[in-house]
Description:
The complex is a heterodimer of chains A (622) and B (175). With 622 residues, chain A is of the alpha+beta class. In chain A, strand 1 and strand 2 form a beta hairpin. Chain A is globular and about 80 Å long. The two termini of chain A are 45 Å apart. Helices cover 73% and strands 0% of the residues of chain B. Chain B has helices at residues 8-11, 22-36, 46-67, 69-79, 94-112, 116-143, 147-174.
Amino acid sequence: MALLQIAEPGLSTAPHQHRLAVGIDLGTTNSLVATVRNGISVVLNDEHGRPLLPSVVRYHPDGSTTVGCEAQSRASEDPHNTIISAKRFMGRGIKDIPDAATLPYHFVDAPGMVQIKTVAGVKSPVEVSAEVLKVLKDRAEIALGGELTGAVITVPAYFDDAQRQATKDAARLAGLSVLRLLNEPTAAAIAYGLDNASEGIYAVYDLGGGTFDVSILKLTKGVFEVLSTNGDSALGGDDFDRRIYCWMLDESALHTVGDHDKAMLMAKAREAKEHLTDHPEVQITAVLATGQLIDFKLTEAKFNELAVSLVNKTLAPCRKALRDAGLQTGDIKGVVMVGGSTRVPRIQAAVGEFFGQTPLTNLDPDKVVALGAAIQANVLAGNKREDDWLLLDVVPLSLGLETMGGLVEKVIPRNSTIPVARGQDFTTYKDGQTAMSIHVLQGERELVSDCRSLARFALRGIPPMVAGAARIRVTFQVDADGLLSVTARETGTGIESHIEVKPSYGLSDDEVARMLQESYAHAREDVDARQLAEIKVDAQRLIDASVAALAEDGAALLQADERAAVEALITNLDSQLQGHDPAAIKRATEALNRGTAEFAARRMDASVKRALAGHKIDEIGM
Amino acid sequence: MPDFNQDHFALFGLDPGYAIDVEALDLAYRELQGEIHPDRFAHAGEADKRLAVQWSTRANEAYQTLKNPFARASYLLTLQGIDALAPGHAALPLTFLERQMEWRETLAEAVASADTDALDRLENDTRAEAGGLLREVAELLDTKRDYPAAAEVLRQYRFLEKFLADIGDAYEDME
Lengths: 622, 175
């Protein structure tokens, strides 16, 4: 399949050329990649026919990595360098990981996000996740026979800004162009809703390996509207394994075991949990490094007893989500189960009891998120326009600012539909004050110390005035990925100072470049060639978009000379594309971006008009 | 040409007023988002993407304001040049404040005794009262066009909304 190929310079791209786009479920335990083929969303298997890629990365002394099944099956051989469940550490500091002391890793506390010391050097969870994503990217490019245009990466709905930013950085590091970060339960709802042509209000109960989400969605013709979401980004199927593991230690009167034994017993615990899905009991047998034999029978009843508090812990977020949506359990038409852990019979029973109905399990709970992400990726890549649907998602946790006395003032409340922007006015409290520090937080609690600190920055250059005279407007903008940016300006005197903050945990472009350099240095891939390829993909995408826009609206919205100017910029970029000078391609790309800004604005106005056509046009003075 | 600064009602082609056709609002909102949502421009150029975020943000703000009766009423007052919720307005009637205090005591008692039935009753009573205030606001805004009076009733309503949020927190704390 020819990807992004144009026959003549500039203007003859077929508007409906199929672009290669994938959906990636970057899971705590397993990851998957899916794509839409012939109108059907399918999971792409590896060369052995396996759909799931264990999210396990092993670092070797020479800097190479092993990812997936092989790394997982040999985890107990090299527990310090085999990173399991890196997703739990994304965007987290060391103090956010309560069980850090019991994990076999050498954690390094770093500002913003914890890092892990391995035999191949210090790695951030972002780099570990990028290794998983690279394997999936390669898998997809081999299966589809071309370079990917873009990917939708799923994140737990309850991920905060730090965790989302870390996920997006991992995708960039893996060389993926991120079309959108999509909430996992929402992705599941797309796969489920389109499959079943459903209408009504649905709950999605998503218990992944390390995260729990519940989302309440309203499905109407062509619209998926998230009404509320809640969850626990540190509760998942892994916790059930850990309960079995701890029970085994108790039963054998062991207090601690070595890291090798621990990895082995955790694997046994997971197998036991899975076995209990369709068997009343399971025999767990293992030999420890000391030669001690472990041999227990775990019954379903005992397992349920071990798990009961975890199951109950998932029901509180369900209640909160319903409450936020202003609904009762009786309003819910169906409950969709997502995540391999929802196969546990006790969980299905508990969810069934809570919502007063049998949960829906007709889609594979391991695959449904990736399938939905692929469907959305196909739309976002521009492969589909007719019978489109609209996805309206929300911000999961309130965003706010520190005020006097260590309290948080909420600026954007949780469950606001995104994109959303909100401003808040502040003033100086001392005469002649010229600077003001601004502390951005996320969470529901009143105290600063109980919320997640996202960024601190100072607004300087405020003209000296008496206390209370300055007017400082702090604006929060959450984009469609659920990512926040903050701007502040002093408007009291008409003098504006303006600052844009990037949260402290986010990677700068330089850091991404350095990490890319490091990772590709090992793979002996030419970094420059890699960057050139990325710049070219971006440039080609812009050409395609511009050509399609001209074909659609050029005649109606542009004067002949304006159109000629845009076409000249396209031709220029296209001819640069034939060369190998990344700087020249970048310049030409930027020129085309600038040159189409006015056209874009006119098209947007036309879109708004189109939307309102038939809605009393004359009243709005069009 | 639809402009960024037109009022929320005009954006959705609705007549300004407290009473609105919610179905028409929903429909206009969805059609607008269908055209300008950032998902429609994920594969487009940077300029398109930025504009889409701006427009979509604007549509969300307008929709949420009009959808919520309290926000809609205070927005209507803003269009009349009245900032109903600014600090420094005259005190609320004494009888209203006294009843507030009674309710707060009932809430504290319900929480202390973990009595969810009492909490349910309190929530229902508050909702009924709040509904009554909104009907009053509607009449003052749409029929009598007595905006200062509407602003005062709206300030009372704000108390009840805050109180309902506190009841919600109490439910969560009991878990």
